[in-house]
């Protein structure tokens, strides 16, 4: 959401280099170039062959690739020193006949807001660098139990954009770059997760979103990003912003891989009010089959706004290509007029949530240099100088005065208003899903409603940068959304590798 460039911190670069090593010196079997862009299924098939690819070789190969490529991208903020041994143990399990699931031996990166045992969890902020997290966030344990190898942590917009810095920049990690073009918008705040997956530094990454933080960087970097319904996944162990909107989510190079990730990450918190009614035990790959679009009723906005002008959808050539693909696959397309909800108090409510929830988190997290938002602001001023206003949003957050009791009825009304803008046309037209051009910012309303959305590459623009289609629906509609997105992806064949 913000954008200027800063240099990569030498400390972070040393961490990446010290654990990357020299691939040629330590690999037991050569890994073919191009392996970094294989799907999870393809990697699993290679690992299943006698004498084939091992997880340890894949981890070593990707560590070396990070050492080679990441100095230009700043997508990885820290590597897991235990990744190679974890991979070797999973190789031993496979050799003994035990395979935990489709992610067995697959390396995965985690956004730097997700607590990971033995590693920093700093949201890119030096003020949160100190004692490593004492345990994993539950979703990390879920992934490990399914056989994933935690390769490392990814850079991000510092404090999820709430410091007020540029998109993709953190004081700890530097400026994340878009692998398609170094000067292109990288999106935020899960910038490193998206850029790393796009650049073949890992097949999978976990992002986290309050509003747009998965969807925007996924679209900008040309990968798949799924923001689940708020409450579908366990949110414990994540540096919070707002429990009304926060959710982790998968980032991958295909819809199928995102669905595999969602399977592995699934598990809600029974103490979380947002998880009431959340479906459990679903195989999110089950509906990803040929012909999934046939007969699906998909709504799309009849008009969109550009430069303050309301235009017919006919004026968007790129989005019309998306509609053509859906139509050719047998989808029934229904134009709808989406009502705009009243977002006049949204910023005030969100920033007030951030103040309370971040203060609570910092107060409970041991071994950090700061224990409150006020201390964090002071820490930044002392470290970087107080002459320049280098943390405007953080100071604005700290000045908020609304109490939780004052906010709750306002949040309830706001969320219901945003939900009805989607529920009403979906119910009236009997729609299975909605689709829009990512550039119409429809992801904002979906996030406020706490509803799911998924962005899928749709091609290139005139500058050769990724474009994206955005599918969304009502609460808990992930199985249908994934099926629709997969059908579109398979027909569009619009993904492309970055030039790096």
From TrEMBL:
Chain spans, region Disordered: 164-189
Pfam families listed in its UniProt record: Amidase (PF01425)
Top-level division of the source organism's lineage: Bacteria
Domain Amidase: 57-482
Protein name listed in UniProt: Amidase family protein
Species of the source: Pseudomonas pergaminensis
